[in-house]
Amino acid sequence: MTDETGPWLVAGLGNPGREYAGNRHNVGFMVAELLAVRLGGRFGRYKRVVADVAEGRIGFGGPKLVLLKPQTYMNLSGGPVAALAQFHKIPADRVIAVHDELDLPYGQLRVKLGGGEGGHNGLRSMSKSLGTKEYARVRFGIGRPPGRQDPADYVLSDFGTAERKELEFLVDRAADMVESVITKGVEPTQNAYHGA
Question: Where does the record place the catalytic residues (predicted)?
Fold first, then answer.
């Protein structure tokens, strides 16, 4: 770990615009929005980096978080993330991406450090712009599309009725996991949440 008092950057991945708000691809935005509420922050447009940004601290005097929702569309997410990291002098090992994950069944949440992007355009863009894959990810399982539905169409569709019943709880739990990575580290978070 680097400087223990430095800020953390949490990138909730998604697509801007009201028509995408309820999409499976936008769970990263949902988690970032909940974290902003918890921290008492409010998202505002950050023109320089084409992103909505909120800032706050976990608890009283706790770690500072810079939350962002890129407004560039998913496949260009990396530009705003890297620009904001550079502006705040945040190294990649203090960056967390929150994203949807086709390779996990719906409702499964996982944390990992580094690794591949699994065909996720937002992660691919982040890795390229940051110049490394060594950042933490909170992976929100959305499952595979039913039948022969194209994965590209599936991720841009809204959660189903049954899924929405659990969505609030899962977003809340994903936000807990982000806070745990920041306050405890990746491995302790994996140990605490992966068995559950």
Answer: 25
